[in-house]
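User: Sequence in, structure out. Go.
Assistant: Echoing your sequence, followed by the structure tokens.
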Amino acid sequence: MPIIKTTQVTKVYNPDTIPVHALAGVDLEIEAGEFTAIVGPSGSGKTTLLNIIGGLDQPTSGSIEVGGQDISKFSDSEMIDFRQKNIGFVFQAYNLIPVLTAEENVEFVMLLQKRSKAERQARVKELLESVGIADKWDKRPNQLSGGQQQRVAVARALASKPTFVLADEPTANLDSKSTANLLDIMARLNQEEGITFVFSTHDQRVIDRARRVVTLVDGQVDTDVYK
């Protein structure tokens, strides 16, 4: 069974005025352990699809199964709980909490999950070491470079030991060196720990590293290529 399965997913914005068809019947399956890039021109529906898979948006029609559960039928409270336990997010704008240190940003989701202090501390230490910024544990976002902030974001995404990680244009604000370092980290986590990554991206550097490329055009899957 795939860990993610979308069936004829559509998304229409402004249906009662000037309809915008962001997705037009997307069928997609993601298996555990994939390192997949969803690509396509601006307006093709990449971010919309990731947001729907992650439960941040609802489809107009169709179903989204994660681990065999149709999350499109969840209530708001069920979806919040499901996201916290099963899905890690990495955003283009990092979305770190500015008043918290790197350590506290990574720890935050585990506080929501009411994990013990000892468990939180051990997991944060492990994750900051795995992304190569253990020495920055006490720095706030404004004291970190863009690449370092995105590493904190990756560590935070992994804190809850999610089923998979959704990364929306994670390298868009990074220089070439920071992008290469971040992709090295994600690829290692994918290969050594079996963490599933699904990217939406325009970045050829990400596309080159992906082992599967799904191309969206006008809200539909145009090509689906395994390397």
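User: And one key feature?
Assistant: Residues 55 and 79 are 7 Å apart (CA to CA).
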